[in-house]
Structure formats: C-alpha cells, structure tokens
Design goal:
The protein has 4 domains: about 10-60, 2-Layer Sandwich (Phosphorylase Kinase, domain 1); about 70-140 and about 360-580, Rossmann fold; about 145-340 and about 585-610, 3-Layer(aba) Sandwich (Dimethylsulfoxide Reductase, domain 2), CATH 3.40.228.10; about 615-750, Barwin-like endoglucanases (Beta Barrel). The relative contact order is 0.16. α3 (about 115-130) packs parallel to α17 (about 480-490). It is globular, with a radius of gyration of 25 Å. It is about 30% helix and about 15% strand. By secondary structure, the chain is of the alpha/beta class.
C-alpha cells in the first residue's frame, strides 16, 4: 500500500520463532523503515518480541550470502548458479554411482520449518535421493513429544496444546513460553495470556530447575532436579489413581491400557520419587490434588523435558495426566488444533488409521532405529567417520548449523572436514557451512512468501495467514523451492539443467492425485483437469498451497462448498480467524485400534530404565548438572549475527547458585571452566539464586569463535558452545533425541584449571 511520502506498508508473518506474529512493515524502496506489530491481526493482536523488528536487520545483513559460493582448497569463489549446480552434479553424481544412495546424507535445520519452499519441496528432494541417512534438528529438540503423540493418537503432530485462553489451572514443566512465545504451542504474548489466567482466578504453576521469566509470572515455582520430570509425573499419576481422583469421563470408552498405566504407577509413589526429584512428597501430592480439583486444567511440558534421557516417557506422562484428570480434548484443557493445511489427523477416514511405525531401519554403526523416516543426529559424526558400505561420503545441509547445535560439536566438526563433498543451502558462511564445497544461498525472509504449515497445527487458536513477499526476488537470486528441485533433478540423474517446470509439475501431480482420490476429501471426484484449470497461473509453493488449502478441512473443495482458498488469504493482510479450539475426539485418532493408546509398548518397555533412578543418592554423591536456557532475543545460532539481538549485556554466561559458587571459590564475572566427559568450555560466571542448587546453566547456540566463517557480529560476541559438553552416546532410546539437559559436569576457576 503506497503512501504520500513515498513509503509503502506491508504485512508479513515473522518467521523467527514459533509464535508467528504478524508484522506491519513500512518500506521506502528496498529499505525497511519501521517494523511494528499488526494491531488488526486476530491471532497475534499487535504483539511482537524483540526478534520481530530485527527481521529488517537480518534482511540487510552484509554478511548474508547472496551469490553461490564454490570452495577450492581454503579459498571461496563467487559462482553463477549454473556453475554451482554443475559442480554439484559432477561430484555428487560420481559418489552416488560409486557408493549408492546411502552414501549421501542430509541434515535439515530448524529454519526449514519456517520456509514454504523448503517445507514443501525438500520432501521431493529427499524422496528422490532415497537415502536412509537423513537427520534433522528434530532429534535435538521435540522428537520425544512427536513420538509419544504418534504412539498415543496416531500421527506425529497430534500434539495436544493447552487451551490457555480458557484454562483455570496451567502446569508448566521444562518450558519458558514467555521467552519462546510457546514451543509446540504457537502462542504470541504468553505473558499476557498467563496474566489473564491469574486475573480470572486461575493458577499457574511452573516446575523448572531455573526461576525463569515464566516462573516469575506464575503463582508458584517449584525447583525440580534436571532429568527427573518423568519421576515427578509418575508420582502425580500415582496420586490420581491411589486416591481415586482420576476421572477420564467421556474419554473412558476411548482408552486402551488404563490398567497397565495403573500397574506401572504403583511403585512411583511421591515418597519414592521425592528424593530423586528434589521435591518433597507433600508438594507432589498437593499438586496432583490441585490438578484433579481444578475446574479445567492442562499440563504442558517442552524442551527441558524433551532433551533429557527420559524425554519420551516424560512427554507421554504429560498426556496421561491430561487424560486421567478428564482434561484432554475439552475446553480449558489440552486440546488438538485443526490446521488448515497438511494436518494428517484431518485427512482420510476419521477415527482410525495406520498409526506410526518406528524402527523400520537402523543406523549402520550403532544400530539406532529410525524415527519418522530419519535417524538421530547423535549418529551423524560416526556415520561419516566409520569406513564401510553406506558410509556417508557426501552431505547436504539445509538451513542448519549442526556443528553448533548437536552434541559433541568438535567431533562433528572434525568429521565434516573429512567428507568427499558437501553442499549447503544457507544464507551464512557459518561454523557448519565453512566445510561445504558449494553453498547455495537462500532468500531473505522478506523476499519470500510465508505460510506456517506446522505451526497452525500447534496453535492455541485456529487461524490461517498467508504473507506475500515484501520485496521481489533480486535479479540473479533463486528461491529455495527451485534450489530443492534442481537438487532433486541432480540426484534423480537428470543433470544440473533439469526442467524446473517439469519437476514442479511432477510434485504437483502427485499431490493432486491424493487430493481428489480420497473419498474423504472435499474435492473427491473432481476432474483433475478442472483442478488444473482452477490453479492455472500458479507455480511452485503457491500452487501446492492453494491445492492443499482447498482440499483441507476448511477448504472450498474447488467449488464443492464455501471455504478457504489461497485467493482469500492473499486478499487479507491479517490472519483469518478459524475459531477457538474445539473437541476433536474420536475423529482425530489415526491409531489402528481407533482408540487412545494410553500404554504404548515402546514407552512401557522403557519404564524399567526409569525405575533405576528411584535408588536414593546422598547429596554429596550428586554431581553438578548442566541445563540449557534461551534468551528472548535469541533463537538458535542463526540469530547471533544481528546486532540488535546481541547488543547489551553478555548473555552467554554460566548461571551458578551462590552456595555452589562459594563452594567452588568462584566470584561473579570470573571465568570458569566447565567440563564433561565430552569436552570443556570456558564461560563467565553469573551468580544467581534463580537456579536450583546443584544445577548450572549455559545457553545454547553460541560458540562463534571458529576460523573460516563470515559472521562479523557473531564472532565479536562469540560465547561458548554448550553442546561441546553433550555426549553423543547419550540419547533417549525411544525417540533417539539427544540428551542436552541433566549433563554431569565439573566446574572450576579457569586460572586453576589443569590442561
């Protein structure tokens, strides 16, 4: 929208975290003049955090790559797109021919989920490649929750989220939504939402080893020892069943395995778990009774409960409690959003499905089972290092920095340097991409459209929002969806010059066949030619998105009913409100039984491992335990080259309790060495009573002190990489998720440290 002074106003979804706030941008030519929240958006209501305005600085970052790069030895050279793809074809095709499909690995980073082109077309590249060696940031983040949800409800994104706007009691474990703005819970302005719970007479309880910003806004904060959330939650289940407080209500006919859960919970009484958790039995019993007695309640747990050795068990028990208290799938409880696009729990026959299958193949070296088509990233370094058939000799990374974000980054860094070939799709020359032989730069977030595929399936209110690009694609640059298709063409053996249009048509036709072939689709029975004509003029992501919207749960079915189309979203600068969360059971279920599997066998089998943690330990025998943390201005390593987000006080510090600091002889601001079995880091000390005694904390995503990068701002505020302390041989065996919390460490003054 053009204004009198030569500026223009645009609206764009912020792609920098899961909250998906809508931004109001004022531009003059190619410059962003101002960024504010969109007051008229019915989902984010004008809320933005400090990351929102920083999108302008990210767009203008001089370090952001805009031209393909080819490395010869240690020297980088700018290249044309054709030169870059010819290089990839020559080297990747040779490796595929000589060593097979599994010789090429792929790593997908966190930003992949925020980009329409990557989200839609990376699947085509992966299917065409056909390698078992696919890894992603999911196994250093949320995989336990997806596994538990898949086993219980039938699909990986059937994740119940708290109905925060209507609940009377919210219990939060291992999550800091005032900083994350929700995670696996798309929820802008969580501070306002938590305050609203309390203002209407509700209660918010936070269990966390740190007194987080969320804890400070809550009614009650309870310190819990890292890695013991599953024990605490089992203690709550024990009380609900022992004291006959469980009341599944209308859920009862849908439950399989309630008796098995009761049997498992018997030995996890509050008195038995209290010592390990660091929470007295009376408090555990009181909290269980409060949950059971609340008019409505929801338990929500996130990254602190996922990135630990019992991540899947803890994630499962959260929803067991929501079921037992009768709060699953009810207003004010834990509910299932209905996404407008891509929701597997809204496709096909309602109420029953194939469920999920895990372990369909295993990693070559350690024999670790796959999960949802990928292997745990803790296996990546060894799969590169270990000779033999199917050894990874080439790697494709997409918008990821595993050298910083995965366990024992030093080992992975050494492994990356040994690859025969590596190609990275990334906007930065960072700690990972410096090992690539070819870098293909993506676009600025403001140069591409946006639709939050995954996050509308996790939102606290149903909505749909499409953002048009704020700026046109600059001459000489290529959208990510076309990069994905050209890579697909190369691994398919079609060479570096395969037709983008032909590949795009192939992907579209596959989706079209599914969309009109299902009797449960609103477009069932429509002529394929009619659909093609209706979508004429669209290509790439927009054609697929329109098809998926119109055949989704709110879609118009190409004229079969009134409903959503991409054209409607394009005409609106703001989100289209699709209403509050509503009960969806039993139709949502996609388990073979058509019931909620309350005691899925893979989780039940792992309870034996948890029992060993019931053995009491003396306080003197307990080591210091490391946990991570996140700052509101930070979201993983790729945000640290934005001046506005790293200016001010040092954020990469070691949080240490005053009594622990005294015992260790450490003062505020001194440099400490933190050691684990995997490695060591040096980091300044920040003494605070906001952390549990016996626990230390270092934020993740830092460590920008490596040679060969082009991250001017990040290198100046390098910080220390906490994942150097994480051990790649420690992971949750059910989901394969890395253990990044509850790591045993030693801390000492840097000056006194031994070599």
């Amino acid at each position: 929208m053009q204004t009198e002074n030569g500026t223009a106003t645009h609206f764009h979804t912020c792609p920098l975290c899961e909250a998906n706030c809508n931004l109001k941008l004022v531009t003059r030519g190619r410059e962003v003049v101002s960024v504010r929240g969109d007051d008229d958006d019915p989902f984010s209501h004008g809320f933005i955090c400090p990351k929102g305005p920083a999108v302008a600085e990210l767009d203008a970052d001089p370090d952001r790559l805009r031209t393909p790069m080819i490395r010869r030895g240690e020297t980088w050279h700018e290249a044309t797109w054709d030169e870059a793809f010819r290089e990839i074809d020559a080297r990747l095709t040779k490796i595929l021919a000589e060593h097979g499909r599994n010789a090429v690995g792929v790593y997908l980073g966190n930003p992949s989920a925020h980009h329409v082109g990557v989200a839609l077309f990376s699947r085509a590249m992966l299917r065409t490649l056909g390698s078992h060696n696919v890894f992603s940031a999911s196994t250093v983040d949320q995989m336990p929750k997806q596994v538990s949800a898949g086993l219980m409800f039938g699909t990986a994104l059937s994740v119940p989220v708290p109905d925060v706007d209507r609940t009377d009691y919210l219990m939060i474990l291992g999550a800091n939504p005032l900083v994350s703005n929700g995670s696996l819970m798309t929820a802008p302005d969580m501070k306002g939402r938590i305050r609203a719970i309390r203002a209407r007479g509700g209660k918010v309880v936070v269990l966390d080893p740190r007194r987080t910003r969320t804890a400070e806004e809550s009614d009650e904060h309870v310190f819990i020892r890292p890695g013991t959330d599953a024990l605490f939650l089992f203690g709550v289940v024990h009380v609900l069943l022992e004291e006959k407080l469980a009341k599944p209500g209308t859920l009862a006919p849908l439950l399989n395995g309630l008796e098995r859960v009761a049997e498992l919970a018997r030995e996890f009484s509050p008195e038995r778990v209290a010592d390990a958790c660091g929470i007295d039995a009376a408090t555990i019993r009181r909290l269980a009774r409060e949950l059971a007695g609340a008019k409505t309640a929801a338990v929500y747990a996130r990254i602190g409960t996922c990135t630990q050795e019992f991540g899947t068990t803890a994630s499962w028990l959260v929803d067991v409690i929501n079921v037992l208290t009768g709060n699953l799938d009810r207003e004010g409880g834990a509910m299932f959003p209905k996404g407008a696009v891509g929701a597997a729990n809204a496709m096909g026959a309602p109420g029953r499905g194939r469920g999920v299958k895990l372990g369909r193949f295993r990693s070559r070296v350690r024999g670790v089972p796959e999960v949802f088509g990928e292997l745990p990233v803790v296996c990546l370094a060894e799969e590169i290092e270990t000779p033999g058939s199917d050894q990874i000799r080439a790697l494709i990374t997409v918008a990821g920095n595993p050298a910083l974000s995965t366990p024992n980054g030093e080992r992975l860094t050494r492994a990356l340097a040994t690859l025969d070939f590596m190609v990275s799709v990334d906007i930065y020359l960072n700690e990972t991409t410096r090992h690539a032989h070819v870098i293909l730069p993506g676009l600025s977030p403001l140069e591409q459209s946006h639709f939050p595929f995954a996050f509308t399936q996790l939102a606290v209110r149903n909505f749909a929002r499409y953002s048009r690009p704020t700026f046109a694609v600059p001459a000489g640059q290529v959208p990510e969806w076309q990069i994905m298709l050209r890579l697909a063409g190369i691994v398919a053996g079609q060479g570096p010059d395969a037709s983008i249009d032909a590949l795009d048509d192939f992907v579209f036709e596959q989706q079209l066949e599914k969309a009109i072939g299902s009797e449960h689709s609103p477009a069932y029975g429509r002529s394929a030619d009619d659909v093609r004509r209706a979508l004429a003029g669209r290509r790439g992501p927009e054609r697929l998105l329109d098809l998926m919207l119109r055949t989704g749960p709110y879609g118009d079915g190409f004229g079969a009913r009134d409903g959503l189309t991409l054209a409607q979203l394009e005409q609106s600068d703001h989100a289209i409100d699709l209403g509050p969360l509503a009960p969806r059971l039993p139709d949502l279920l996609r388990t073979p039984s058509g019931r909620i599997e309350l005691a899925p066998e893979p989780v039940v089998a792992d309870v034996e491992r948890l029992r060993a943690k019931l053995a009491p330990a003396t306080a003197s025998a307990r080591p210091l335990l490391l946990v991570g943390r996140r700052d509101l201005r930070s979201n993983n390593s790729w945000m640290h080259n934005v001046e506005a987000l790293v200016s001010g006080k040092t954020r990469c510090t070691l949080h240490l309790h005053p009594e622990d600091a005294h015992a260790l002889g450490l003062g505020d601001g001194e440099t400490a060495v933190v050691r684990s079995r995997a490695g060591s880091i040096e980091v300044p000390v920040e003494i605070t009573d906001g952390i549990m005694r016996g626990v230390v904390s270092v934020p993740h995503g830092w460590g920008h002190d490596q040679r060969g990068t082009r991250l001017g701002v990040a290198a100046r505020v390098a910080g220390a990489n906490s994942n150097r302390l994480a051990e790649e041989d420690r992971f949750d065996p059910v989901s394969g998720n890395a253990v990044l919390n509850g790591i045993e460490v030693r801390v000492e003054r840097a000056a006194a440290a031994n070599p």
